[in-house]
Amino acid sequence: AVAEAMMAGLPVIVTPEIQISPEVAAARAGLVVPGTSDALAAAIVTLLTTPGLGRAMGDRGRAYATCTYAWDEIAAKLAGAYSTIGPNVREVTS
Distance (Å, rounded) from C-alpha 51 to C-alpha 19? Predict the structure, then answer.
């Protein structure tokens, strides 16, 4: 759901335990906060009271997600992975 929100240009709030949190932080696409109710509430208030911040985070998130999670990018990475193992695969005959 986080990658989808980023693709939609929305700022995200995640905790460090979420697998994508390093990417959110690196792309500056949202806020990574401890998983406490106080920290989550503070992050929500920050985004609601600083509209330019959320807009900028959303724009950066969309740019990052488009480059990283678009289907053509995933297909290219998968094709590259297959090409590295392809020469090592031998046909098995019965």
Answer: 26
